[in-house]
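User: I'm putting together a small comparison set for a docking exercise, and I want a reference complex before I start. The sequence is below, and the ligand is zinc ion. Could you produce the 3D structure with the ligand included, as C-alpha coordinates?
Assistant: Of course. I'll restate your input first, then give the C-alpha coordinates for the complex.
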Amino acid sequence: MSDQATGPRGPTGERYPSDLPREEAMARASTLLRDKASEIYFKYTCEHCGERNTFNDPNTLWSEGECYSCGKISKVERAGFMVVLDMKEARKRKKEI
Ligand SMILES: [Zn+2]
Protein backbone atom coordinates (compact mmCIF):
# COMPACT_ATOMS: atom_id res chain seq x y z
CA MET A 1 0.00 0.00 0.00
CA SER A 2 1.28 3.44 -0.81
CA ASP A 3 1.21 6.14 1.80
CA GLN A 4 -1.28 8.75 0.62
CA ALA A 5 -0.29 11.10 3.42
CA THR A 6 3.21 11.64 2.05
CA GLY A 7 2.18 14.92 0.41
CA PRO A 8 4.02 16.91 -2.23
CA ARG A 9 7.64 16.08 -2.78
CA GLY A 10 10.42 18.27 -1.52
CA PRO A 11 13.48 19.42 -3.45
CA THR A 12 15.52 16.38 -2.43
CA GLY A 13 14.18 14.04 -5.07
CA GLU A 14 11.52 11.92 -3.49
CA ARG A 15 8.69 11.08 -5.84
CA TYR A 16 4.96 11.10 -5.73
CA PRO A 17 3.89 7.74 -4.33
CA SER A 18 1.79 7.08 -7.43
CA ASP A 19 4.76 7.12 -9.81
CA LEU A 20 5.76 3.81 -11.32
CA PRO A 21 8.76 2.59 -13.27
CA ARG A 22 8.28 3.32 -16.99
CA GLU A 23 7.61 -0.28 -17.95
CA GLU A 24 4.96 -0.71 -15.31
CA ALA A 25 3.31 2.62 -16.05
CA MET A 26 3.10 1.68 -19.74
CA ALA A 27 1.78 -1.80 -18.99
CA ARG A 28 -0.97 -0.45 -16.74
CA ALA A 29 -1.83 2.23 -19.27
CA SER A 30 -2.23 -0.23 -22.12
CA THR A 31 -4.51 -2.41 -19.99
CA LEU A 32 -6.69 0.62 -19.22
CA LEU A 33 -6.78 1.64 -22.88
CA ARG A 34 -7.88 -1.82 -23.89
CA ASP A 35 -10.61 -2.15 -21.25
CA LYS A 36 -12.12 1.31 -20.96
CA ALA A 37 -11.63 3.14 -24.25
CA SER A 38 -9.87 5.95 -22.48
CA GLU A 39 -6.98 8.25 -23.13
CA ILE A 40 -3.92 8.30 -20.92
CA TYR A 41 -1.85 11.37 -20.20
CA PHE A 42 1.47 10.51 -18.61
CA LYS A 43 2.93 12.62 -15.86
CA TYR A 44 6.39 12.91 -14.44
CA THR A 45 8.20 14.99 -11.89
CA CYS A 46 10.91 17.42 -13.02
CA GLU A 47 14.23 16.28 -11.58
CA HIS A 48 15.46 19.89 -11.42
CA CYS A 49 12.69 21.84 -9.72
CA GLY A 50 10.21 19.15 -8.64
CA GLU A 51 7.37 20.50 -10.76
CA ARG A 52 4.75 17.98 -11.81
CA ASN A 53 4.46 17.85 -15.60
CA THR A 54 1.91 16.20 -17.87
CA PHE A 55 2.68 15.28 -21.48
CA ASN A 56 0.37 16.86 -24.05
CA ASP A 57 0.26 13.84 -26.32
CA PRO A 58 -2.31 11.22 -25.28
CA ASN A 59 -1.08 7.66 -24.80
CA THR A 60 2.54 8.66 -25.25
CA LEU A 61 5.25 8.31 -22.66
CA TRP A 62 8.29 10.17 -23.93
CA SER A 63 11.70 9.23 -22.57
CA GLU A 64 12.47 12.87 -21.83
CA GLY A 65 10.36 15.87 -20.99
CA GLU A 66 10.85 19.61 -20.91
CA CYS A 67 9.63 21.15 -17.68
CA TYR A 68 6.83 23.70 -18.05
CA SER A 69 8.11 25.53 -15.02
CA CYS A 70 11.91 25.68 -15.30
CA GLY A 71 12.38 24.66 -18.95
CA LYS A 72 15.00 22.02 -18.19
CA ILE A 73 15.00 18.50 -19.60
CA SER A 74 14.35 15.55 -17.33
CA LYS A 75 14.84 11.88 -18.11
CA VAL A 76 11.51 10.22 -17.44
CA GLU A 77 12.36 7.09 -15.53
CA ARG A 78 9.25 7.00 -13.39
CA ALA A 79 5.82 8.15 -14.39
CA GLY A 80 2.26 8.41 -13.25
CA PHE A 81 -0.72 9.03 -15.45
CA MET A 82 -4.13 10.59 -15.69
CA VAL A 83 -6.92 8.52 -17.21
CA VAL A 84 -9.56 10.12 -19.39
CA LEU A 85 -12.60 7.92 -19.58
CA ASP A 86 -14.73 7.81 -22.67
CA MET A 87 -17.72 9.66 -21.24
CA LYS A 88 -19.88 9.23 -24.33
CA GLU A 89 -19.56 5.50 -24.01
CA ALA A 90 -20.30 5.66 -20.28
CA ARG A 91 -23.49 7.68 -20.86
CA LYS A 92 -24.66 5.24 -23.49
CA ARG A 93 -24.22 2.37 -21.08
CA LYS A 94 -26.15 4.21 -18.37
CA LYS A 95 -29.13 4.74 -20.70
CA GLU A 96 -29.29 1.07 -21.49
CA ILE A 97 -29.76 0.13 -17.85
ZN1 LIG B 1 11.51 21.94 -13.63
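Residues 1-8 have pLDDT under 50 and may be disordered. The pocket of zinc ion is lined by residues 46, 48-49, 51, 67, 69-70, 72 (CB under 6 Å).
User: Thanks, that's exactly what I needed.
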